[in-house]
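Researcher: Let's do a round of design. I'm pasting the structure tokens now; please hold your answer until I've finished.
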């Protein structure tokens, strides 16, 4: 089976759009494409249509001339927090941890928006009713000021493709997705409805690796051992080394 890079190069040369699951894979494939072009002796080549999925959605919004509408993560949280503070003023909810509730509410709202779902009007618990009211107020504010957020961006772009406001690509190759997010699923269905093809890259099965478990005394010991392991790999000629740090921002 061909490698992921081979599939991407073949797709790009057919004129396909390649969308990656994250920016790391996007950078890797762009760099790999450039290296392959250099190996073939080319001095100049067209920029390949390879983008991270989220970045492509933002690019589409810019093509529509509506990039100014998109809220940043910080702006969205600020609007939700202000909304919650207004709604809770003078009630028992005033004692809640607004920052924590805001974070949870934003995640729930983005998930509903990504799936293009609305809450039912009946059968909700008190907490769910409160969230529904907060969400209606937030959505009303966004509608009044013509604002969009990341949660609803994929569905907005899919609707723009359906209406013909954006030119739909004839072929889309999805790379690096363990499971397609709802926005990518909606995009795939829409591309198919418009007569195009949206498919996932096939992952080649490589040789088996070696798994070792190491128990460190503490975080400092763990970091030191990791750094020594990386240096050892570099001295052995490794050119690509990955280190996963779940709490990288703190550490």
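Researcher: That's everything. Go ahead.
Model: Designed sequence:
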């Amino acid at each position: 089976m061909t490698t992921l890079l081979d599939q991407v190069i073949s797709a790009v040369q057919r004129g396909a759009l390649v969308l990656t699951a994250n920016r790391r894979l996007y950078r890797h494939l762009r760099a790999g494409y450039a290296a392959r072009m250099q190996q073939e002796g080319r001095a100049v080549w067209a920029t390949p249509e390879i983008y991270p999925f989220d970045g492509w959605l933002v690019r589409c919004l810019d093509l529509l001339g509506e990039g100014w509408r998109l809220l940043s993560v910080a702006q969205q949280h600020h609007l939700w927090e202000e909304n919650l503070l207004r709604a809770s003023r003078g009630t028992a909810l005033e004692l809640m941890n607004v920052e924590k509730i805001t974070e949870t509410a934003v995640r729930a709202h983005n998930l509903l928006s990504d799936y293009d779902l609305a809450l039912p009007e009946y059968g909700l618990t008190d907490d769910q009713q409160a969230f529904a009211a907060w969400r209606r107020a937030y959505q009303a504010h966004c509608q009044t000021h013509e604002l969009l957020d990341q949660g609803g961006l994929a569905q907005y772009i899919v609707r723009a493709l359906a209406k013909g406001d954006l030119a739909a690509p004839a072929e889309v190759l999805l790379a690096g997705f363990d499971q397609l997010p709802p926005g990518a699923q909606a995009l795939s269905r829409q591309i198919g409805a418009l007569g195009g093809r949206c498919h996932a890259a096939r992952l080649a099965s490589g040789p088996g690796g070696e798994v070792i478990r190491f128990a460190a005394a503490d975080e400092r010991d763990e970091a030191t051992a990791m750094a020594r392991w990386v240096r050892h790999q570099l001295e052995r000629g490794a050119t690509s080394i990955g280190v996963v740090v779940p709490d990288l921002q703190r550490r």
